[in-house]
Amino acid sequence: MSAAVASTPAASTGSDRWLRYRRYLPPLLIVVLWQIAASAGLIPTRTLASPAMIAGTFAELISSGELPRHLLVSLGRVTTGLGIGVVVGTTFALIAGLSRRGEDLLDATLQMLRTLPFLALVPLFILWFGIGETPKIALVALGTMFPIYLTLFAGIRGVDAKLIEAGGTLGLSRREQVFHIVLPGALPSALVGLRYALGVAWLSLVVAEQINADSGIGFLVMTARDFLRTDIILVGLIVYAILGLSADQIVRVLERQVLAWRPSFLKD
Amino acid sequence: MNAHPALAARQHPVVQVSNLVRSFGRGPNILDGLDLTIRAGEFVALLGRSGSGKSTLLRTLAGLDTAPAGTVTVPAERAVVFQEPRLIPWKRVWANVALGLRTPDARERAIAALSEVGLSHRLEAWPLTLSGGEAQRAALARALVREPKLLLLDEPFAALDALTRLKTQGLVASLWRAHRPAVLLVTHDVDEALLLADRVLVLDQGRIGFDLHVNLERPRHHAQPAFATLRSRLLRELGVEEENPEEPVEELRAPTRSRAPAASSRRLEDAVWSASADALARS
Ligand SMILES: Nc1ncnc2c1ncn2[C@@H]1O[C@H](COP(=O)(O)OP(=O)(O)OP(=O)(O)O)[C@@H](O)[C@H]1O
Ligand SMILES: [Mg+2]
């Protein structure tokens, strides 16, 4: 007991660091065991490439410029689709959230469409838009629009009416109330929607690129399947994982910046 | 400087309400032919049982509620402090105070108002980090920086602990002395009303049922015999019987109809609060 109290700051930061890194040990151990099993011939390459092979392929794909090329194509599709989805979702949410008439006009329709599994629209999209870039971007845009719309609409309607009333007594015009009170108040909810939309964006991209494409990470993975190259498939999966994680990280940083007023961030 | 009642009476009215009627849905009239006049610089306290319509009246004066019948004249320069501070959480304290000011020196004025309420060290703080008393003081600063002719206070001290409450009451008294807005203070606290107000009104059955001029010298003191007399008269008016009633006093009842006693035992607790309020009167 007394030892714990007497522990020096240096000792406590040391153990903090250990606690932080300790959680990465099990996955590391799995990779090591995987490599040992592969080297011993227990896992055939056809089923699963070894970590060393994957690393080698990764380096090769990067140096040959093949991976960066496909990555850029995929990133372009995601950002374009996400951009369109965010703009359209935000516009709809503002129209429906800020006026009763707008809600009557849009909300019922969008709530109905939302229940449709949007990936089921792929056949229709191919019929409508052909097999070029349009159906892929449209799928991402459609998938990301709903989370943005739903969370921003709910956020706008959830803003404390007492704050809006207080804004009125301070002489704010309706436009100023929206700008100073309603929209910032809806932001926490909208950012949750953005994070969710990013997840949906990758998911839609994976589906879109595997159906019909001649470039992109999904195309890379699908061609690798034809040649039984599990190493390339795994490189593709790792790239998806890294992209997903970094997108999430970007939103977290954004949240820290714009939601600095919230008590959960105030602690640090 | 002390406001002499005779002086106050000569001031022009800033609030004039006549025959105000308000009901909600198909319910009874909450406000039922209410008349009210408040003169410039006058400090008026409004008492009444819970649900009697005090907040409804205040919201009407603030322009937040439109009554179906009656005429209401209020100045354009008015400000409200609610029971909760209602600061905008995503604006720094100074920006909350400056919100809606349209002059280029808005920030300077906000800072000046905040130092007046003793918050100059919290200008850049986020509102959610303020204590309850600090938040309510920031709300006061936000109201006063608008230099209102009419200041509407809806139980602004109700959520504060006894000590903070005393300090904030003292602050309101000195701010009123310095800026002289007309004040309508809604409260459940008889002593608070008597310490601060020129006039104490009791809202009952939709009208001002009782209008008491408080002719006490300022600063006021609980130990003043006149204070105790007024206090027991007011309590009786609210339907609270005291242990040792003072000798009967001639009542200054507004010439309306008879009313049923209307007060809960809750208000007795409120009313019989700590004698340390004397400290306030001395400040
Ligand atoms: N928006 C509303 N819709 C329906 N009824 C309402 C509304 N606002 C107030 N009322 C009713 O009007 C009556 C008066 O309410 P009000 O808030 O003015 O009371 P009050 O005197 O301020 O009470 P308290 O001391 O508890 O704050 C209450 O019965 C209340 O239920
Ligand atoms: Mg009320």
TrEMBL record, chain A:
Main localization (coarse): membrane
Membrane-crossing residue ranges in chain numbering: 24-43, 78-99, 111-131, 137-156, 177-198, 232-254
Mode of membrane association: Multi-pass membrane protein
Tagged with keyword Cell membrane: yes
Domain ABC transmembrane type-1: 71-251
Signal sequence coordinates: none
Keywords, ordered alphabetically: Cell membrane, Membrane, Transmembrane, Transmembrane helix, Transport
Organism domain of life: Bacteria
Pfam family of the protein (one): BPD_transp_1
SUPFAM superfamilies (alphabetical): MetI-like
UniProt subcellular location: Cell membrane
InterPro entries membership: MetI-like, MetI-like_sf
Family affiliation: Belongs to the binding-protein-dependent transport system permease family.
PANTHER family: ALIPHATIC SULFONATES TRANSPORT PERMEASE PROTEIN SSUC-RELATED (PTHR30151:SF38), ALKANE SULFONATE ABC TRANSPORTER-RELATED, MEMBRANE SUBUNIT (PTHR30151)
Name by which UniProt lists this protein: ABC transporter permease subunit
Source lineage: Bacteria, Pseudomonadati, Pseudomonadota, Alphaproteobacteria, Hyphomicrobiales
TrEMBL record, chain B:
InterPro entries linked: AAA+_ATPase, ABC_transporter-like_ATP-bd, ABC_transporter-like_CS, ABC_transporter_ATP-bind, P-loop_NTPase
Composition-biased stretches (Low complexity): 255-265
Chain spans, region Disordered: 240-283
Keyword entries, A-Z: ATP-binding, Cell membrane, Membrane, Nucleotide-binding, Translocase, Transport
GO molecular function: ATP binding
Domain named ABC transporter: residues: 15-230
This protein's record includes keyword tRNA processing: no
Biased composition (Acidic residues): 240-249
Pfam families attached to this UniProt entry: ABC_tran (PF00005)
SMART domains: AAA
Family indicated by similarity: Belongs to the ABC transporter superfamily.
Name of the protein this chain belongs to: ABC transporter ATP-binding protein
